[in-house]
Amino acid sequence: MSAAPAEPFEEFRAKMFATGADEFAEFRSQPTTSTSTSTLLSKPRQLMRRFLRLAPGPIQYARAAPVIEEAPHDELHVTLPLPGAHAEDVHVTLHAAELLVSNDVTHATRTITLPSAVLPDASAAFKDGKLSVTLHKCASPLDSDMHSIMVR
To answer: Which domain of life is it from (predicted)?
Structure first.
């Protein structure tokens, strides 16, 4: 068993060249006069898909979907990976049946639609690159105000 690469880029290179084939050779060839416009336009999309499939770390998780689990006692648990962030960089706001998560590191905001209305008394914790939010379900939203949830 080989040692794990020290840097994400080395892991990326190891994946790229594991097969011995050049994953990107077709993108280096020059177009000919018979190359169709649709073929030329599809190449950047194909290149990006292939790159994202092989890319390391934060790129892989940037669009990770949140996990929403229903728990006993009318609770909802929402888990969202936020690699590279710290608890002080993450802000969570509750508005009716939507959870808004903003990350100061990536300057991105995610809106997570919850499966049911929840009470504003929620708790949030951030550990090992994952945000965990615990919410209490209710029959209908109590108000339409925005409620900030402190992240521990």
So the answer is: Eukaryota
